[in-house]
Specification:
6-stranded mixed sheet, 5-stranded mixed sheet, elongated, 11 strands, alpha/beta, single chain
Length: about 280
């Protein structure tokens, strides 16, 4: 299995900061992914999947989809899974601009709607998991943070995701539910960027998904807060209309939604989708 973290995205400016222009090489990314998808994609003799499968997945799915990609390859010899992990808004933009992909897994319905509204979804998207926010702090919680109100302390450096990114939208909702206003020192383009600021010691705290804090539990602690229940994100997945490998795409979505797939997601800290 191979993975790609996608083309670099521009980092939002902190309040009062200076803007730095970053050119996103989308065309290069599209051509590179087209090369990955150009292999044989015809069904195997038994009708099963084969060839290269390209999945665009939210950054918060990195550990889970890496595991599921390896499992898929083991269960279907002759397949290769390539996953492009990035912020859901960036992935949706890449898809609508023509980047070749078989499957899209978003960290929020809003970004999935960008793809479906543009006619790129072959089916109705299905929610396969939910995620909630925690306050990520350095191990040991040196600032003794216990809730969102603590993020307003003078001098405390906080990282948030940008508003257009699912973790940023969830943070806005949670902070609103708590009646708290936080001025971040940086706005990141995906949840891994916000988490990295804590791991590097550049900020005292960040609002990230529970799953990301769990994946980095040797370096950070996750502080739970009740308002996160008001900002739980649903994760939808769909096969794309122009999927180069639709047979493998449908098989991968089936794996994600299967009992073994749910077990991998639960182990990573995801919650099952709401409803039946």
């Amino acid at each position: 299995m191979t993975r790609s973290d996608g083309p670099p995205a521009p980092t939002a400016d902190p309040p009062g900061g200076h803007r730095r222009a970053v050119v996103v090489p989308l065309v290069a990314a599209v051509l590179a992914l087209a090369g990955c998808a150009a292999g044989t994609t015809a069904p195997a003799a038994d009708g099963g999947p084969r060839g290269t499968l390209t999945v665009f997945a939210a950054a918060s799915l990195t550990e889970s989809f890496t595991t599921l990609g390896r499992r898929f390859e083991a269960e279907h010899p002759g397949t290769t899974v390539t996953v492009n992990f990035a912020g859901s808004s960036a992935l949706a933009t890449q898809i609508t601009q023509g980047a070749p992909a078989d499957v899209f897994a978003s960290a929020a319905p809003r970004n999935m709607a960008t793809v479906t509204d543009a006619g790129h979804a072959a089916d109705t998207p299905t929610v396969f998991a939910r995620n909630q926010l925690v306050i990520a702090v350095p191990q040991g919680n040196p600032q003794r943070l216990t809730g969102l109100a603590d993020l307003t302390r003078p001098g405390l450096k906080v990282a948030l995701c940008a508003a257009q990114v699912p973790c940023g939208a969830a943070a806005t909702t949670a902070l609103g539910a708590a009646g708290v206003r936080v001025t971040p020192v940086t706005l990141e383009q995906d949840v891994r960027g916000a988490l990295a600021k804590v791991k590097l010691g550049e900020v005292d705290a960040a609002l990230v998904y529970r799953t990301d804090a769990r994946a980095a539990d040797r370096e950070v602690d996750g502080v739970e807060f009740p308002e996160s229940a008001h900002a739980a994100n649903d994760y939808p997945i769909v096969v794309l209309t122009d999927a180069p490998n639709p047979v493998a795409a449908r098989a991968f979505v089936a794996l994600v939604r299967s009992a073994p797939g749910r077990a991998v997601l639960t182990d990573a800290g995801f919650q099952p989708p709401a409803g039946p």
